[in-house]
């Protein structure tokens, strides 16, 4: 199974689970007037929406390089990762609307044993989904899966908060439910900021590899005097490198080209995620290596 198909499989599995979890929490939360439980359910619903967005983004980003996109389409996956962060902010707004409505309407949640059962089961599902996405995201080098696992991970903390709110409500603290709902909103917003920050680092071409490591590696190649001007860009699993390599000025063009090939091979073999290396050959002013 290729990378794109594997990522799609992960997203489809998590989409189904997120829809089931969301439906259970939203429907039962509405029945018992629990704003925190409904908010948690809407949060899970946006997890499902982000899975659909991810399927579209992964499909586009899997297209090979073409005349207009010589570096490929992998940044589309990063772009759609930003959309996940935006969805989390929309979720936050909806949660605070529910909190405000609960406080002004004076409704009190009717906590039942079924509510606790639903929350515990969905919590277990969220833990499994988050761990599964994170593991596969690292294996496949997918920024989107890693971002989505962070989104789902926030569900875990949210669900723990909701369970605490239900316990307090059952003990006679009616304001616990909307207060927990507000805390849920803050946690969702914080997770959204983290997702957007990570995607932005890729979109603005933040360096993706340790340049000192690259220099040390290149200088071990026979015939290389020194190197400088090392730049990296792309994503952690799809890195582009360009650098300047200094060689003996008396060296033939053929020999210099051979050294450039050796430098490229060394970088690709030793640094994970590198897919392209551009080597600029320059004469060294220091003479023989």
Assign an overall shape.
elongated
Number of helices: 8
Tell me the helix content: 55-70%
Q: What is the topology, as strand order, of the major beta sheet?
A: 1-2-3
Give the termini distance in whole angstroms: 46 Å
- Structural class by SSE content: mainly alpha
Please count the beta strands (DSSP E, at least 2 residues each): 3
Round the mean pLDDT to the nearest integer and report it: 82
- Radius of gyration, taken over Cα atoms and rounded to an integer in Å: 25 Å
* Beta-strand residue percentage: 5-15%
What is the H/E string? HHHHHHHEEHE
Q: Note poorly predicted spans.
A: none
Largest sheet composition? 3 strands, mixed
Architecture overview:
Strands 1-2-3 form a three-stranded mixed beta sheet, covered by helices on one side. The protein has 289 residues and is mainly alpha-helical. The chain is elongated, with a radius of gyration of 25 Å. Helix 3 runs parallel beside helix 5 (143-170) and helix 3 (75-105) runs antiparallel to helix 6 (176-203). The protein has helices at 3-31, 35-61, 75-105, 113-140, 143-170, 176-203, 211-218, 253-270; strands at 226-235, 238-247, 274-283.
Descriptors for this entry?
8 helices; mainly alpha; 10% strand
Describe the protein's topology.
Blueprint: H1 3-31, H2 35-61, H3 75-105, H4 113-140, H5 143-170, H6 176-203, H7 211-218, E1 226-235, E2 238-247, H8 253-270, E3 274-283
Parallel strand pairs: 2-3
Antiparallel strand pairs: 1-2
Helix pairs in contact: 1-2, 1-4, 2-3, 2-5, 2-6, 3-5, 3-6, 4-5, 5-6
Can you describe this structure in just a few lines?
This protein is mainly α and 289 residues long. 68% of the residues lie in helices and 10% in strands.
